[in-house]
Amino acid sequence: MIILGSSGSIGLNALNLAKEYNLKVDALACKSSLKVLNAQIEEFSPKLVYIDDDSLKPLVNHKFVFSKKDGIEKFLIACDEQSHGSKLINAFVGFDGLVPSVMALKLGFDLALANKESLVAGGQFLDCSKITPIDSEHFGLKFLLKDRPKLHRLIITASGGAFYGRDISSLKDASVEDALKHPNWNMGAKITIDSATMVNKLFEIIEAFWLYGCQNIEAYIERKSLIHALIEFKDGSTTAHISKPDMRLAIAHAIGLNNQRIIENLDIAKLQNITLEPIDLERYRAFSLKDNLLQNPQIGAIINAANDEIVAGFLSKKVKFNSISSAIFDALDRFFCFKLDSLESVIEINQKVREYIKHRYIS
User: Fold this and answer.
1) Is residue 316 marked as binding?
2) What is the pLDDT of residue 143?
3) What is the pLDDT of residues 53-86, one digit of tens each?
4) Is 172 annotated as a binding residue?
5) Is 117 assigned a ligand-binding role in the annotation?
6) Do 167 and 272 belong together in one domain?
């Protein structure tokens, strides 16, 4: 398989599974984690590697190294020549994952997608029938959709993030350190902040729309992260996908290990006192965009760009926590009428929104 984002949590888990089940790793790509990449090269002996930071290219311990100057497209073409049709995990973080997703499908790779932004910003340009999602919620939905009756509604769950239960008036002064204290999952900083604002769940809603073609989608808070997804069928029945919160399960299914024991089954006695609660739109303002986003999925590109830039500002302690949702609504008001009917237009709006948010809120 090929792993884009090999130094992140998804990439590291995928490589651990590859080692455990003796799966061949053909290529690795990361942004700038030189030490991690060199260790992975030594252990897995990939045919090709990519590091985004051009200055680090000479320091990578491999004969065939690509970097940003060469272009991710050239790297993927070389991967196709070496390993046509291989499983490709796209675990890049952020908007930079969109073009690799488009190209991976065009080249005929078996795409296992952990990059949310590919679907949030560019779902209309992807053949979603050829994508295997790597996400606990979307894996749960996919698992439940086998041999399905007619759908009525898709439901995913959220933990509520770091600030569930905290007094809403105090959120304006919430610190970065507090926002990064996710109750159940060990994730990167960006996605942990997105969990605290519920933007992550907003993105997962539109991912589910693109992946499964259903517009009737809802999310509820389930604090223990044991119930990941539910499906209501037209016949009146409902099914649920339940497991311990461990991303290895979704990754394992995405890379073909669905008949192996990956994690221990959940002790069903722990399902006592599980509750599903509606999402408080006063606390999680951005989630109020759900219905608008489902009706106009192209605005995902605007929301994603604004959120990326303002979260970066929050993590660098240049803006307050409440500015995140304000910036997203502001960007939508300003750019809503922008026509997003091509990949080029999505790339353009991504740049325009980022520049606007930097100038308005951060500079």
Assistant:
1) no
2) 79
3) 999 999 999 999 999 999 999 999 999 999 998 9
4) no
5) yes
6) yes
